[in-house]
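Lab notebook, bench 4. We co-purified these components, and the gel suggests they stay together. Before we commit to crystallization screens, I want a quick structural picture of the whole thing.
Request: model the full complex, all chains together.
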Amino acid sequence: MQGSKAALRYAKAIFSLAKDKEVTKEVNDDMVLIRETIDGTGDLRTFLKSPVIKDSIKKNALLEIFKDVNGITSGMFDLLMENNRLEILSQVAAKYMFLYDQMNNVQVAKVTTAIPLTPALETKIQQKVKELTGNEAKIENIIDESIIGGFILRVGDIQYNGSVQAQLNNLKREFKNNTYVSKI
Amino acid sequence: MAEINPAEVSAILKKQLSGYEAKASLNEVGTVLNVGDGIANVYGLSNAQYGELVEFESGLEGIVLNLEEDNVGVVLLGSYKEVKEGATVKRTQRIASINVGEGIVGRVVDTLGAPIDGKGPIEGETFQMPLERKAPGVIYRQPVTEPLQTGIKAIDAMVPIGRGQRELVIGDRQTGKTAVVIDTILNQKEFYDAGEPVYCIYVAIGQKASTVAGIAKTLEDKGALAYTTIVAANASDPAPMQVYAPFAGAAIGEYFRDTGRPALIVYDDLSKQAVAYREVSLLLRRPPGREAYPGDVFFLHSRLLERAAKVIADDDIAKNMNDLPEVLKDKVKGGGSLTALPLIETQAGDVSAYIPTNVISITDGQIFLTSDLFNSGVRPAINVGISVSRVGGSAQIKSMKKVAGTLKLDQAQFRELEAFAKFGSDLDPATLSVIEKGKRNVEILKQAQNNPYPVEEQIAIIYAGSKNLLRDVPVEKVREFEKDYLEFLNAKHRDTLDTLKAGKLTDEVTDTLTNVAKELSAKYKA
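Here is the predicted assembly.
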């Protein structure tokens, strides 16, 4: 999470500017795009991180890639370039999305399952999250076969682990914890 | 290895399974940012408290020791190889604590109270005692009045320890520090047999597992494990386990203290604990001070040793004691005590190093062991001249006080004159008599390891020494004489010894002792 503190500062500034201009929604769409593009393209990540490539080239490339973005977003590229902070771009985007969700009382609920969630289950989970936190949930489904069955729900700092794997682990620990074996 | 019966195995497995229930619960979690050298930084866990136990996915536990803006520093109570970056960490809502009950007596446990002696779980009702707890306030204490018999002649006569006192045992390596405290534990058997046990807690910090196993065996062989608990954080255990081991021991001791019973705790040794604490502190990036110890190493030891106390006898006042754990509130009784015997290892007799000076200033006196004495055959190698007990004097039984009153002075005089004697010049009879008496007293104060003396026998032999009744016995025969003398007294004059034990020193008693000593010493006359 290096640079996460700085990213939050930038995100806050951008967010408050967007709020003044009433374009938070548009900027958020840009941020989602930026985040998805950077996370999805290894080359772009390496390119942004590389200390060899000049920042001006980086900025031009970014403007080329993200052509139809809001004025605020392109301004962000400028600011980050000037401050030599282009490498935290993806984190700034993530923090912005977090702030935007917070404003709209929406929380990201990460649901890890072994098989994809059905829409019916998704609404059920949404209801449950609302019950727990009082916020609307944006479900992010992560497929991980290693949990075998059940699900892990994570909203912010709260986690509900109902996976088969966790239960097996508990059972394993119970057996390992044998007080009839001398350890001295 | 013992034969294992398949039926037994299933029974044990069944027992373990019966406690297991498939449960999933809502937890507050965080994510491991980085881990290394026994410290993990965790993002999230925003509500975690200082000193709270957290649990990693593998079941490994840690203690929250650094609270920062967006992450917390956790010290791991186990191998950090099981923890990976990005792993989730769970809050347990439990401030570091240990489960204590009557069943913990006779067991060997680790810092978190988990039994490690292979004798199964702790039996009976247990109470959660916090590792870190404030010491009792002034109004819940009373002065030290009862003696804590160590069974070591030199200590009980000249540096007496009272119940509730904190007496430091300090000396170089290999001077018999552990032997002194183990003897003290063994000597409490008398009280256990009489039905008024002094519960003993031996905290082994940073020692070899083989040493701890050896001590456990000695205690068991001598029947002392029946009233003793061993808390072990061995050299191979992570540093935080070693740092908290004395606190776990103190928590066990407090259980007995607050339920109105006497307890004795031995910290073997606090120098190693300080070293472990230094390691943890440096890894947490706390600034180093003198000898690279952190600034609060004094507080570490002072708050630990302050927990030793003699609790006021009045139940009603004791019930309101500060910082009592909820679970213990209705069981509190007054009159309990916790006596602490911390050990400190010095390097080449240097007591002006940081940790020794700290602990000397915190405790109510110190027993000084020197390698010179040890090597010249004076064992226990207690240097009487510089050993002191600041409060124990008022706890000595009357008969011992009367008999031993002059002993310390005599020995001081002897040490001074001994230097002259080395020149071999002609000495006047008065000087010669002081030296001869001193030599015999030194012999009297010697005793074998694991061989504590009951207090009445101590008084009897010290009486003979301080009244110079041994002047006809050659120095090398003094120990032989002592054996005969005590055997004779035990066989023929048990009533005299009982009077001494009761704290009385009547003319009748002194006459008997004098007569017996004179009679026996005649046999040794050359």
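Chain A is about 60% helix and 15% strand. Worth comparing against the SEC data before the next meeting. Helices of chain A lie at 4-20, 24-40, 42-49, 55-65, 71-82, 89-103, 119-133, 164-176.
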